[in-house]
Amino acid sequence: MCGIIGYIGSGDAQRVIISGLKRMEYRGYDSSGIALLTDKGLEVRKKAGKLANLEAELESSPVGASTHGIGHTRWATHGGPTDMNAHPHLGSTGRVALVHNGIIENYASLRAELADAGVVFASQTDSEIVAHLVETKILAGSTLLQAMRTTVGRLQGAFTLVAIDTDEPGTVVAARRSSPLVVGVGKGENFLASDVASFIEYTREAIELGQDQIVEMTADSITVTNFDGTQAEVRPYHIDWDLSAAEKGGYDWFMRKEIFEQPRAVADTLRGRINDNRELILDEIRIDAATLRSIDKIIIVACGTAYHAGLIGKYAIEHWTRIPVEVEIASEFRYRDPIISPTTLVVTISQSGETADTLMAIRHAREQHAKVISICNTNGSTIPRESDAVIYTHAGPEIGVASTKGFTTQLIACYLLGLYLAQVRGTKFGDEVLALIEELEALPAKMDEVLDDLSVTLSLAKEMTEERSFLFLGRHVGYPVALEGALKLKEISYLHAEGFPAGELKHGPIALVDQDLPIFIVVPPQGRDQLHDKVLSNIEEVRARGARTIVLAEKGDHEAEQYASTLISLPVVPTLFQPVLAILPLQAFSCELATLRGCDVDQPRNLAKSVTVE
Ligand code: AGP
Fold first, then answer.
1. 350 in ligand 1 pocket by Cβ < 6 Å?
2. 4, 208, 379, 406 — which has fewest CB within 10 A?
């Protein structure tokens, strides 16, 4: 997600803002910019790439002294990482500068309305539209505060907006819906930011803004109201984190922070996918419906965690579309001389968008004239650029090497692709697709339910710090969850961990089962034909040999309880969606055990966040 900072006071606004943006670099970004009010009026500098590019621009093209401005580091969603798409964005007359974090879901209709009114856009972003809307109101006589209040009433989606107006040199105005924004309360100066890390060196007094609130800030005052204009409840607090903890939002690891970010990341990935006709729409799918209807085979290609997401995607896509789906490890794909034709759809999954094995697979697939759709979390990265179409997951930057929110949002993207194909090919009626979308939209709340009570999981980690080997079992979509749970544990705690299909154990691996060997088992929801009972008998097989069974099962599954040394309950969801919940305790267990073992959870030995070599 983007980094935002606004400042007003008696200090050097450029220095404060640039240092604040630097404190947010860890969040990941692909462009940055600053707008300052000087004696020449509004001066803007913005550059693609790292902050150093913006600093070089400020060196080569200095702006005047200023005590009032806004800054932004952008994580691209709508529109690639270019100078023009970087924030701040201006209105047509250059009187208003605005920065934005989030996704404006109804930007297409607003953009069309502004274009009809003669507005010429300088960028491809959804954010620029808001700058034009605010300025239009100001030019019609509103104050910046009034203009912001009117504008937010027209926006759908998630947004944090911060704006300044040349004609109101003493004021910064901001609005918040579903994206973070916090006020830093200084002495004779005040700050607005998406992250306390950006102003903690100036003040530790802060005010957390709530949902649908607007703040008007001067050097000496902070006024918070609700979108409807009524006085807002505010919660001042003292920041007692050190800078390092502040960067992680108070968590000890980026990975732990990202585990808890998953409900929002899933919600953001789902946001804006249904158009006004209640049809499913997907980012930048530039493959026409006729071509998608001609597809007779799908090959999902990925690495590591992304590969596990693909395995789950296979079950859903085959079930909804009846198209055969193969799932392939990217580094194996092109060496097995795969059977590809122009009616093959290759789907790659990559958080970073730079994984060399996956990129090479794309090039091979396109040489064979297959269509390629990429599921990716990094706008403008190489893999989407070399694909025919892309579905972006809006997880925001994932800093921890062990992928967590990357994985769950990849699952969501796989589900969306499957439903989109079913909608286009008519294998699912519109109401059936919508019903499944509504089930997906209910997932973030159920994820919160799991994350709100990890007590069993965390105490399990404390009991198991001396264990040396773990097995993970599952059937159907629970099997890739077992693989992913094992990968999480081995890559950050350096312990032996292996995932198996529960039905496969008796064909050899059961020889590993020893007294008290910890085995995690994902039990499918009840009622799913004989799948549920088969897994229970697999659990019995290992219990009979002394294993310690940690059973993940849906709430109310009293039968499964009898097979559990330890029970981890999950909210009830459809079978195909259970992985989105079942993986959460396994991520949390691995993070806690690795922490207790003194491992570097965020930067595990031997691993890189993006493997750009084959
Ligand atoms: C996951 O925890 C690992 N960091 C690794 O397996 C990762 O998923 C894999 O390297 C693929 O990366 P990508 O999604 O960026 O392509």
1. yes
2. 208
Rounded CA gap, 282 and 387, in Å? 15
Q: What is the CATH architecture assignment of 3-246?
A: 4-Layer Sandwich (3.60)
* DSSP designation for 147: H
Q: Are strands 89-90 and 96-104 parallel, antiparallel or unpaired?
A: antiparallel
Domain 268-441: which CATH number of 1.10.3720.10, 3.40.50.10490, 3.90.226.10, 2.40.70.10: 3.40.50.10490
Q: What is the best residue among 352, 487, 493, 612 to mutate for testing ligand 1's pocket, by most ligand atoms within 8 Å of CB?
A: 352
267 CA distance to ligand 1 middle (Å): 22
Walking along the chain (614 residues) 10 residues at a time, the average pLDDT comes out as 91 97 83 96 95 96 96 86 94 96 90 95 94 97 98 93 96 91 96 90 91 96 96 86 77 95 95 85 84 97 98 98 98 93 96 92 94 90 89 90 97 97 95 95 98 97 97 97 98 97 93 95 86 94 96 96 97 97 98 97 85 74
d(CA 342, CA 200): 55
CATH level 3 topology of 455-596? Rossmann fold (3.40.50)
CA-proximal residue: ligand 1, atom 16 (nearest): 350
Residue 374 Cβ < 6 Å to ligand 1: no
402 Cα to the center of ligand 1, angstroms: 7
**Ligand 1 proximity of 603 Cβ (cutoff 6 Å):** no
Report whether 297 contacts 343 (CB < 8 A). yes
Tell me if 143 sits within 8 A of 159, measured CB to CB: no
Identify whether 599 is a catalytic site residue: no
Radius of gyration of the chain (CA): 25
| Buried-state track 393-422, b at ≥16 Cβ within 10 A, e below 16 | bbbbbbbbbbbbbbbbbbbbbbbbbbbbbb
Q: How far is residue 362's CA from residue 366's CA, in Å, rounded to a whole number?
A: 6
Rounded to an integer, what distance in angstroms lies between the CA atom of residue 171 and that of residue 177? Answer: 20
Strand partners, 104: 157
Residue type, 339: I
Q: Which amino acid is at 570?
A: L
pLDDT digits (tens, 9 = 90+) for 384-397: 989 999 999 989 88
Of 248, 257, 488, 609, which one is the catalytic site residue?
609
Q: Given this chain, do its domains 268-441 and 455-596 carry the same CATH topology?
A: yes
Q: Which two tokens stand for residue 15?
A: 């220095």
297 is catalytic: no
Q: Where are the beta strands (DSSP E) in 455-604?
A: 469-474, 496-501, 518-522, 548-554, 566-570
Give me the pLDDT at residue 1, please. Answer: 64
Q: Are 564 and 549 in contact (CB under 8 A)?
A: yes
CB proximity list for 481: less than 8 A, separation 6 or greater: 308, 312, 472, 474, 522, 578, 579, 582, 583, 586
What is the DSSP code (8-state) at residue 336? G
Which of 262, 303, 383 has most ligand 1 atoms within 8 Å of its beta carbon, as the pocket-test mutant? 303
Residue 528 confidence (pLDDT): 66
- Distance between CA atoms of residues 344 and 296, nearest Å: 6
Verify whether ligand 1 is closer than 6 Å to residue 348 (CB atom).
no
